[in-house]
Amino acid sequence: MLMPSNFDANAGFFEAVLTAEDAIISDELNHASIIDGIRLSKAERHRYKHLDMAALEKSLQDTQHCRMRLIVTDGVFSMDGDLAPLDKIVDLAKKYNAHTFVDEAHATGALGNTGRGTPELFGLEGQIDVINSTLGKALGGGTGGFTVAKKSVVELLRQKCRPYLYSNSIAPSTVAASIEALKMLDDSPQIVEQLRANTS
Hints:
Elements: E1 2-3, H1 6-17, E2 23-27, H2 32-40, E3 44-48, H3 53-62, E4 69-74, H4 86-95, E5 99-103, H5 118-121, E6 130-134, E7 145-148, H6 151-160, H7 162-165, H8 172-187, H9 190-199
Parallel strand pairs: 2-3, 2-4, 4-5, 5-6
Antiparallel strand pairs: 1-7, 6-7
Helix pairs in contact: 1-2, 1-6, 3-4
């Protein structure tokens, strides 16, 4: 689902999807847009120490009474460049019957063999419940964000996500340029390899 920005996608998600019966378990260094979105939700809020899987597991144990638990993390943390240990997060989610939400704004187009971000980097494609990201940054669109999730979640967002309902759609030229950028990544994995070499 396309949104005006990744900030809007994050800010609108939690209020639309979660209820007071649910719990959000968030890395303490998540992006401001995630923090703002969590504040709008009526769900229980739990923060775990940055990248601390023992603290995350404790929060999962403490929230067993909740209808649904959502582990929320950046894939790449914007201030320090830390990578979330997605493999361990997914293992804990499976162990405790929780769901996963990853903000990929700083990984899309830059990480993984074809720029598909941290899920591709960790070999976890198809195992993350919700991915939010941007059409800006590495994709070059300059605006626009998106949510990737099951159809039922996307349909719920289309009905209840306030930034989606009460803002303009992104420009067709941005959509077309973003589609082309994604095609270029598919067709030319050496783009990501070159980025790695330049970074090194």
